Amino acid sequence: MTPTVHTWPILETARTQVLEQGIGLTEDQLVEVLQLPDEALPQALELAHQVRLRHCGEDVEVEGIVSIKTGGCPEDCHFCSQSGLFDSPVRGVWLDIPELVKAAKETAATGATEFCIVAAVRGPDIKLMNQVKFAIGRINEEVDINIACSLGMLTQQQVDQLAGWGVHRYNHNLETARSFFPQVVTTHTYEERLETCAMVKAAGMELCCGALLGMGESLHQRAELAAQLAALEPHEVPLNFLNPRPGTPLENQGLMDGKDALRAIAAFRLAMPRTVLRYAGGRELTLGDLGTREGLLGGINAVIVGNYLTTLGRPATADLSLLVDLNMPIRELQKTL
Question: So where does [2Fe-2S] cluster get bound?
């Protein structure tokens, strides 16, 4: 006799609404996904994977990141060791242009199609903008790779300059839900982040706007964030999981439960069926090797390879080998601008 397979109403709803119709789940529906019991998790991940394949295709986008300016940031993001306001071990360092070009070449050699230049600042000054301009020019001369930037909050003039220099994608994370944001950042507002995101989209650059989960937010606030990101319609959403850093206000927060992280991956995919959903920081500790594999079979379709800004990632070879094992092709480089 064949055993009965239990089904959950929210997953049946998602199968019709998201998989078949391509309509993301609402905030209330996402809460139901995040509250699913552990025994429902394999079905949720399988459905999220089917959604990814149908609405995004089978390719996986690989990206490398490097910091042009590390540490000394004047903002007080409670999770970040690059803040100059906390007693953390990260100190201010600038990276010169030859080092950036070298990093871009190494990134391209892994098969990555995107290289992101990051700076720990509230927003770029003239010195930083000039350095970014020269770096973009040199990288384009020597490396065939899309260039992205993450330089904090921008003015309209800076947005126009970056677009004019050929920046393919701009990263500016919401990080957490509007209702939780004041508990993790007080030196700028949620609305200021949204303003930069809106200008980036209006200028024709792709918007990369991500989340950092595990900072003490509730399940309802995770659903709120997923819905707010879906409303923003970014091209890409990096999913980060808190890696508590010494000297920051969240150093004792602890790691997010791995199954909760997988539930969140499925929920974010069901909220945004057509968005690039990228593995980013903290997954090594939160999910480990097995969880990383499960996430790639549960809605993820992009990865950052190598190290992050202030923490170590998985070796690029480990991620690339895993993609080969899962028969997931790496997206070929396409210049879109």
Answer: 116, 149, 208, 278
Contact at 8 Å (CB) between 100 and 140? no
Global pTM value: 0.89
Give residues with Cβ within 8 angstroms of 35, minimum separation 6: 219
The three-class DSSP label of residue 304 is strand
Q: Which amino acid is at 66?
A: V
Looking at this protein, which amino acid is placed at residue 321? S
Could you report the average pLDDT of every consecutive run of 10 residues in the chain (337 residues)?
68 98 98 98 98 96 78 80 56 68 87 85 90 93 93 97 96 97 95 97 97 98 98 96 91 95 98 96 86 92 66 60 77 38
* CATH code of 69's domain: 3.20.20.70
Q: What's the confidence (pLDDT) of residue 336?
A: 30
Q: What is the pLDDT of residue 311?
A: 41
- First-to-final CA distance of the chain: 58
Residue 5 is assigned to a structural domain of this protein: no
Find out whether 77 is annotated in a ligand binding site: yes
Query: pLDDT digit string (tens) for 157-194?
Result: 999 999 999 999 999 999 999 999 999 999 999 999 99
**Alpha-carbon gap, residue 266 to 273, rounded angstroms:** 10
197 is in an annotated binding site: no
Number of structural domains in the chain = 1
Q: Confirm whether 130 is domain-assigned.
A: yes
Distance CA 65, CA 310 (A): 11
Q: Quick check: 212 and 260 in contact, CB under 8 A?
A: no
pLDDT at residue 243, as a whole number: 92
Cβ burial of 158 (10 Å; 0-12, 13-18, 19+) is: buried
80 is in an annotated binding site: yes
Q: Within a domain: residue 215?
A: yes
d(CA 292, CA 289): 5
Cα–Cα distance list, 20 to 14, 42, 124, 270, 326 (Å): 9, 20, 43, 12, 24
Q: Does residue 1 fall inside a structural domain? A: no
CA 277, chain centre distance (Å): 7
- Which residue range(s) make up the domain with 92? 61-326
